[in-house]
Amino acid sequence: MKKQQNNIDKIMKVLIRKYPSNERTTLNRMRKKPNAFKILISCLLSLRTQDKNTEIASKKLFAVAETPEAILKLPIKKLEKLIFSSGHYKKKARTLKSVCKEIIERFNGRVPSTKEELLSIKGVGPKTANIVMAFAFRKHVLPIDTHCHRIPNRLGWVKTKTPEETETELEKVLPRKYWREFNAIFVQFGQTICQPISPFCSKCPIAEYCPKIGVERSR
Q1: Same domain, 66 and 106
Q2: CA angle, 126 then 108 then 102, to 5°
Q3: Which domain holds residue 48?
Q4: 198-218 as b/e: b if 16+ CB within 10 A
Q5: Measured distance CA(88)–CA(86) in Å, rounded
Q6: pLDDT tens, 142-168?
Q7: Under DSSP, is residue 165 helix (H, G, I), strand (E, B) or coil?
Q8: Residue 28 — very low, low, confident or very high, per pLDDT cuts 50/70/90?
Q9: Is the pLDDT of residue 24 over 80?
Q10: What is the CATH number of the domain that holds 179?
Q11: Which of 138, 184, 167, 144 is nearest to 12 (CA)?
């Protein structure tokens, strides 16, 4: 593993060039004019769906309601219809209502900026908390989703079983200068090249550094 960790700088430099800032996901683009509440809501909508669906649902919702008070006032059926494209819309609508209620009642309508407070809100998990802290409050944290968990294990940087373990281990080996861009880069890389099943190793820009740990077949 130590040998693979020695290639981190080389790999990150290649991927930073390959995935420039103007090609980022919906959530990453929201960093330009950060609104903590919108970032939180879009992150909740992004769970278990593709980025294009997150963008559609977010735009439809924020065109009608862009504050916790406004979302709380929406009839549940209307909210479900607005976020339908994000998938799991019934469950997500209930989660949004609950989160908005807590933000109003416990935090005076403002999204908290600490991990402890964010995780105390029912429906907000570690990945969502870290995305809000990184994108809205510019804190040095590592938002770990499925791509950010899978790829470092495949590269041999870490050997972990859960995203939470990956976050802890990556903090030990990944230089802090890369933390802020890590999620944006690895989500794009994971969606286009280093896919879960049969990754495109033949056109991977970092193939020479990758031991392909756990890869049974590739293209």
Answers
A1: yes
A2: 45
A3: 35-136
A4: ebebeebebeebbeeeeeeee
A5: 7
A6: 889 889 999 999 999 999 999 989 999
A7: helix
A8: low
A9: no
A10: 1.10.1670.10
A11: 184
- Last-in-domain residue among 136, 152, 176: 136
- Here the CATH number for the domain that contains residue 92 is 1.10.340.30
pLDDT tens digit string along 50-102?
878 888 999 999 999 999 999 999 999 999 999 999 989 999 999 999 999 99
Nearest 5°: the CA angle 25, 169, 204 is 50
Other Cβ atoms closer than 10 A to 1:
14
Q: Is residue 195 part of a domain?
A: yes
160 vs 18: CA distance, rounded Å: 26
Q: Are 40 and 128 in contact (CB under 8 A)?
A: yes
Tokens of 108: 């005076």
